[in-house]
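Bug #77: duplicate submission created two jobs. Keeping one. Sequence:
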Amino acid sequence: MHLPHLKTSVGLLAITPLLSGCAQAEISGLGFEEGLSSVNDHSLSLWQGAWITAAVVGVITLILILWPVFFHRKKDENFPKQTQYNIPVEVAYTLIPFLIVAVLFYFTVQRESRIVKISPDSQVSHFIDVVGFQWSWQFKYRDAGDFKSATVTGTPAQPPTLYLPQGQKVRFNLDANDVVHGFWIPAFMIQMQNLPGVTNKLEFTANKLGTYPGRCNILCGRNHAQMLFTVKVVTLQEYQTYIQGLVAEEKAAIA
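Kept job's structure:
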């Protein structure tokens, strides 16, 4: 009589470890995975701290809203006591938000300075030029030896793939041919603008093998939504093989 319920309970117990593992990973990163890139290493704790702060402020605000609803309801027809001001309360609700913003600002500046720091060329393993244009991307790999660079140019119909070597620091030189674009890899918690006539520099290390979506996050025109690309993190050997293949294709095209 109770067999169906027993089967259901056994099934739920069987998948509980899987569900709890997924939930813990999602809750701990609050939407982001830890260790994907050197940027995540700096940004993730700031992201978590901001959400925790917002949650604490939200709970306190909810309590302050509900407190008078339940404990200061109208008890009789007497006009309630009127208070012109309360200096301690006014100081508190001015000072506390200021302190919260100041602390978040401090840690934001601290982490941002680490993320945008540019190392000497001798400490960078690979150099890639990223050019945004309406409406796709061009990647120029500066690891092509005597051939100067190997280039991949995408189209809205065929978005390009950006290959990155695992565990190697890469310097990106960001430019635009027409309007402002935004080089954005959501999983890596990184974005920087591609500006016409200005070269922005960004460097980071991709730590985990895999494929990750990238896109433009600056409204750049009619087909902005089609400015997509894919980031593929591979081993160093696979990366070198890929670059050699690009060079071979370009040499064949020239010949």
